[in-house]
Design a protein that fits this description.
With 183 residues, the chain is of the alpha+beta class. The chain has a domain of 121 residues: Lipoprotein localisation LolA/LolB/LppX (outer membrane lipoprotein receptor (LolB), chain A), CATH 2.50.20. The chain is built from three helices and eleven strands. It has an eleven-stranded antiparallel beta sheet with strand order 6-5-4-3-2-1-11-10-9-8-7, covered by helices on one side. The N and C termini lie far apart (77 Å). The relative contact order is 0.18. About 7% of the residues have low confidence.
Length: 183
């Protein structure tokens, strides 16, 4: 009988610890207004790096390193990618996975009901399936910050994004998320 009680206690304790991780991730997201970070993006083996600013909901500004100095910006309605050669690509945000990734309230609502997966005792992963998208979002198990995501982009490419040097709730210039004018 003592073994059964001990096993029940250990299982119950482990379940409560797992719920605490999810609660801490949710509380961290609720308290985050914006993020600044460096990124490494792997699209079908092609790696690009740069830095981004996210302001919730649905705003992002990313400046890519490398020779093309690509810029990605969303004002919450559209996503524009500007290449170094002056070419622009414009998408409605609701036609991209960024519609969900950049909406912390959506993420909070989804992960509340999802089962988490702990990876190497370092990362917490949630898989969100919405509107034909499968989005894997990863959080740091120690500080509960979002550290990346994995999606399939509009061209059906596997897109894996890792975040580093994350700063939260920084002062952001007012026109940061202004969509560039087309020439």
């Amino acid at each position: 009988m003592k073994k059964i009680i001990l096993i029940f206690f250990l299982l119950n304790f482990n379940a409560e610890a797992q719920n605490t991780i999810k609660k801490n991730i949710i509380n961290n997201l609720k308290n985050t207004k914006n993020l600044s970070f460096n990124f490494e993006q792997n699209i079908n083996g092609k790696i690009e790096t740069g830095n981004c600013i996210i302001e919730y909901p649905k705003k992002i500004y990313c400046k890519y390193n490398k020779k093309n100095k690509k810029i990605l910006v969303s004002d919450g309605k559209s996503v524009v990618i500007k290449a170094n050669d002056g070419t622009y690509y414009r998408y409605r945000i609701n036609k991209t996975p960024l519609n969900f990734i950049l909406d912390k309230n959506f993420i909070i609502n989804e992960i509340t009901n999802l089962t988490k997966r702990i990876i190497d005792n370092k990362f917490v992963n949630f898989t969100i399936e919405k509107n034909d998208y499968e989005i894997n979002i990863f959080f740091d198990i120690k500080n509960f910050d979002i550290i990346g995501w994995q999606t399939i982009d509009v061209y059906q490419n596997l897109n894996i994004t890792f975040l580093s040097s994350i700063m939260k709730n920084q002062k952001i210039k007012k026109n940061t998320f202004q969509i560039p004018l087309f020439n």
